[in-house]
Amino acid sequence: MDKLTRALEKARQKRLARLSSEHGGAGELLKGGTPNPDGTLPVDGDDPGSLPAPVRRSRIFHISDTQLEANRLISRRLQDRNADLFRVLRTKVMQEMGRIGARTLGVTSPVYGDGKSIIAANLALSLAQDVNQTVLLVDLDLRDPSVQRNFGIDAELGLGDYLKGDAQVPDCMVGLDIERLRLLPITHPLEDSSEVLGTPKMAALARELKNRYADRIVIYDMPPLLTQADTIAFLPHVDAVLLVLRDGGTTLEDFERCRDALANFHVVGAVINDRRFKLI
Amino acid sequence: MKEMGVKDYISILTRNWKYFTVSFFLVLILSFVFTLNYDRYKSTVTVQIQSPEIAENIASLTFDGAARMAEALADQRINQIQQRVTSTSGLIEVINKLNLYPEDRKRMPLAEVAADMRKKIQLDMVSTSLANPTAAQRASAGQLSAIAFNLTFAYDDPLKAQQTTDELISRFLDEDLKQRRVQATETNAFIAYQVTALEKTLEEQDKKIAEFRARNPNARPESLAFNQQMLASTESSLREVNTRISSLEKQRGDLKGQLALVQPYSMAVMDGQVLTSPDIQLKALRSQLAILKGQYSERHPDVIRVEKQIQLLQKQVRPTRPRQDTSKFQSRLIDAETRLKILEETRSPDHPDIQNLKGQIAQLKQKIATSRATSMTDEMVQDADNPTYLMIVSQIQATEASLAPLLDQRTELERQIQEYQRSIAEIPKVEEEFSALTRDYENTMIAYRELRARQLSAEMSEKMEADHKGERLVVINPPELPTDTSPGRKMLLLAGIFLATLSGIGTVFVIEILSSVINGQNHYYRLTGTLPLVSIPYLYTERERQNRKRHLLYIAGATVAFITVVLGSFHLLIMPLEVAWTLLLRKFGIY
Ligand SMILES: Nc1ncnc2c1ncn2[C@@H]1O[C@H](COP(=O)(O)OP(=O)(O)OP(=O)(O)O)[C@@H](O)[C@H]1O
Ligand SMILES: [Mg+2]
């Protein structure tokens, strides 16, 4: 606990320092003629009065294509075979979710580094490209948060702040200059976060995200299923699960254990990631 | 679960191409090193077996059979010689002479080294048709049945391999020569022994024939006609003699009839009676005595005188015996003899009828003989004084005198006839016996002649062996200095490449089997029965792409630099590259 509080403290100080220094940057972004006039920001403003904290406006980050490319987030590209693959994935996932009436999707994998974050982010980007969908990508990997890193943003508040009770959910959300995509990042890794996902606070978060933003699709970038105990604890709060497997990496044993663990949940399907060298 | 398809196997290979490459090159390098260090050289000599003798002996057989027989014979002989040449002692001689296996000899007893060496010597029979086309041609023309064999020796030094093969084959030829000479001598001795044995047999058979001839002088097959002729002429002589005999006998019978009518005595008269003969006188005296006795007493001198006279006369008059009629016997005899003749023409000589007749004839002849013997003495009165009577008697006596030799002649002729008949009857039997004897003799003679011919040729071939002219193993391909290992380095390298490929594939599949990770969509499908939603490839960033290019360039550059350095230093420090290249090519048999 000590460690956690210390980390949070440190993060806060950092954030405060950055807020003061980046004030101009955000303003410049707004000034730059690329505000988000469409519905996303006002929706955030419709916070129910029940929440005690004051309403803060989400920042809007500019995401450059190079930034995305450097982190292998390529699903927004047009006429790109890999982007097409994600569009296929998008369609299939949406079909399946629609069939079972699901609106939240947990992306998980057996172990670390299988590519959950990349798949989740690419899927989110691809979904947001579809004019009918508003997407929220939530980083649940407290130990190794990657949403912030992958999108190259530097949010002030994140899930950690919510968990600590320092911030409301809407305050932690981040807007981008990509239409219909919101992020709920984790600003700093949380050590000793093994039981966090099983806490009532997380359950409340899941409920809130599901109920308040009924038209949104929520994608959770989850921790590995087999190496972290509370991943399973959070699974009841998601409507559907997408399993990422690493080609030539995921062992059959792990795969079997995942299937066992996911036996009682809606699994929309699996993605084989990092398909290896192929001639045919 | 889906079955594995070709596509899956290829994807397994391509997925694990790194393992494949590593294992492939590892094995390839190993096989390359092995090939360079491989030193097993084979030197082969081809020897043709020319065997005119065999060709002669079996010229009558079909070519196929002949070839097979010749092959079997040669095979046997070659094997025998091989065993001699590759005997431990023989090989030890070779080892010492050529200083083979210097290393092994330090570690092992020589006998074991020799045993190892024996395994490296290989002998293969090659049938003519395969050996070379000209030989096959000649063979099919029936000119020869030659077979060849290859003698091969493998050693780790080409020169030694050649020398050893040379040494071995010369020993082989020597041994062959020696054996054939011994064989020729033995054959000769054996044939000589057989000749002697046959000569003895011939001698015995010759003697037997001579003995047989002595035993049956007339009974030679060629005497049949002679005997028959003789029989015929003898029979006609007999008939002649018989006619003469019967005419003489008739004459005698007539004379005897006359004699009976003539009183042997001259006329005497007593008491008014003409007393012609003592019989009548006796009768008269007896009647006189009876009268006197009625008149006178017994003591009367007249009575006594007459009695005395009677007594005297009685002495004079011998009791007469009944006269036997020889002519009756004679006719019976002729009858029997004619019947016998008829029978003999139709029946066998030992037929009971013939035997019976012969007995009768003998009896009759006996009777005739006795009656004749008596006729002369009995029928004639000794003291006859009648001149007529005496004349007739003398005539009778003359007749009988001429009859006697005729009778003797007849008996002799009859005996001869019997003899001839017997000979003629015996001829078939004798002939058989004789021809059997001659046949035996002739057979032995043929065998003897053959053997003599063989003895001659055997003596000749022995002489030829002694003069080295009977050479029949001909080296048609002398052992050459092997230029390449066996199997050749090229082959070894090809095998190495093949093995390397196999080992690459094997490694990949072993790794695939051992690894228990998800491999591709199909694998997933096999596991779950559904396909994954998508399969995302490795997503390259622009930076990675460029890095990769640079990386490859670096690697290529480094490789070129490395090779240049290595080759350069090799060129400068060890030997010029062009020399090394030539050497390498030569080593692999490529020029
Ligand atoms: N398809 C891909 N192509 C190239 N790189 C990939 C791919 N998938 C994942 N990676 C790389 O693998 C690493 C791990 O990816 P990622 O962070 O998405 O995995 P993760 O499952 O979220 O891991 P963790 O459990 O630590 O959160 C990253 O460096 C990412 O760039
Ligand atoms: Mg992650």
Automatic annotation (TrEMBL), chain A:
Top-level taxon of the source organism: Bacteria
Region (Disordered): 1-52
Iron-sulfur in keyword set: no
GO molecular function: kinase activity
Keyword Nucleotide-binding part of the UniProt annotation: yes
Annotated keywords: ATP-binding, Kinase, Nucleotide-binding, Transferase
Compositional bias ranges of the Basic and acidic residues kind: 1-11
InterPro entries: Bact_polysacc_biosynth/exp, P-loop_NTPase, Wzc-like_C
Protein name, as recorded: CpsD/CapB family tyrosine-protein kinase
Source organism: Phaeovibrio sulfidiphilus
Automatic annotation (TrEMBL), chain B:
Signal peptide stretch: none
Coiled-coil region: 195-258, 403-433
Highest taxon of the lineage: Bacteria
Bilayer-spanning residue ranges: 20-38, 491-511, 552-574
Keyword Kinase attached: no
One cellular-component annotation, GO: plasma membrane
InterPro entries given in the database record: Bact_polysacc_biosynth/exp
Keywords tagged on the record: Coiled coil, Membrane, Transmembrane, Transmembrane helix
GO molecular function: protein tyrosine kinase activity
UniProt name for this protein: Lipopolysaccharide biosynthesis protein
Lineage: Bacteria, Pseudomonadati, Pseudomonadota, Alphaproteobacteria, Rhodospirillales
